[in-house]
TrEMBL record:
Domain named ABC transporter: residues: 13-243
Name by which UniProt lists this protein: Daunorubicin/doxorubicin resistance ATP-binding protein DrrA
Gene Ontology MF term list: ATP binding; ATP hydrolysis activity
Subcellular location: Cell membrane
GO CC annotation terms, alphabetical: plasma membrane
Organism: Dietzia timorensis
Membrane topology per record: Peripheral membrane protein
InterPro entries the record matches: AAA+_ATPase (IPR003593), ABC_transporter-like_ATP-bd (IPR003439), ABC_transporter-like_CS (IPR017871), ABC_transporter_ATP-binding (IPR050763), DrrA (IPR005894), P-loop_NTPase (IPR027417)
A GO BP annotation: response to antibiotic
Origin: domain of life: Bacteria
Amino acid sequence: MTEKTGPDRAIAVEAKNLVKKFGDFTAVDGVSFQVPKGSVLGVLGPNGAGKTTCVQMMTTLLTPTSGTATVAGYDVVTQPKQVRQSMGLTAQSATVDELLTGRENLRMIGDLYGLPGKRVKERADELLEKFSLSDAANKIAKSYSGGMRRRLDLAASLVAAPPVLFLDEPTTGLDPHARLELWEVLRTLVREGATLVLTTQYLDEADQLADNIVVIDRGKVIAEGTPLQLKDRSGAASLVVTVSRAEEVEQAEQILRSRVEEVHVDRDARRMTAPSEGVSALAAIANAFADAGIELDDIGLQRPSLDDVFLGLTGHRAEDTSNLGEDADKIAEEAK
């Protein structure tokens, strides 16, 4: 058997025991993860948990105190130029020049990368089309809505077509419609082969976009896995039944209690919840209701949410930053 040497070409991003200290304060404490090519890693945690500090180390903006990290096989400390050529970064705040038009912003980025003039023009037009900004291409960025600026910022990070993209809380401050639009753009990038590292404090965002999730709290990785694996840590799925007619709730309850021991009934909502015994049991229960002539609005399995997972892991919800002690990312920013 031949011994494997050199970087794993199937791994686009890797962190090994990353540590960042500012004086006596440890902002990031031994974070490790791998991101396979063409996948999305969600780095999930409350505001100030150290997510941004991790991204800044991975993108050469901060030097790790200890540990190692690679992007596209290049070391972030010893090969920073190659790392920057291999990745794009969308930071928490949009970095576009508000006094330039959308097209001028993208062409400026292409010029900074040293791309040929013809290619710069072509690439700018391609990205304006991809991000639904063609109609606003000649308007100054200051006139753009928040969602449009975010899309332009993301487009700017893709001018040089990097294989890896870091997105630090990309939808913070966007309205629900703009968030959904950006999610679809990100899904398209992944379908086209990009690798994404996405930090977020929005549990639904990680659930929607990430193939794997690393949960960070107070600078440490406290859990990792697929969204489904993390949900399974919070317990089994529940059977949820909603009866169409209020007068049939009692009969439906009797039928359900004949099959499962513990049933919670919300009569006002006409809803019953019970421990799930799997998909096969779900089908049998649905047939029992049908045989009794009881009409249902809904029946299905409900897994714990990522919010339930985070609460169980940390004792607080992702957006709850009260009483969490030091704010890792804030201290990191003040120390720069």
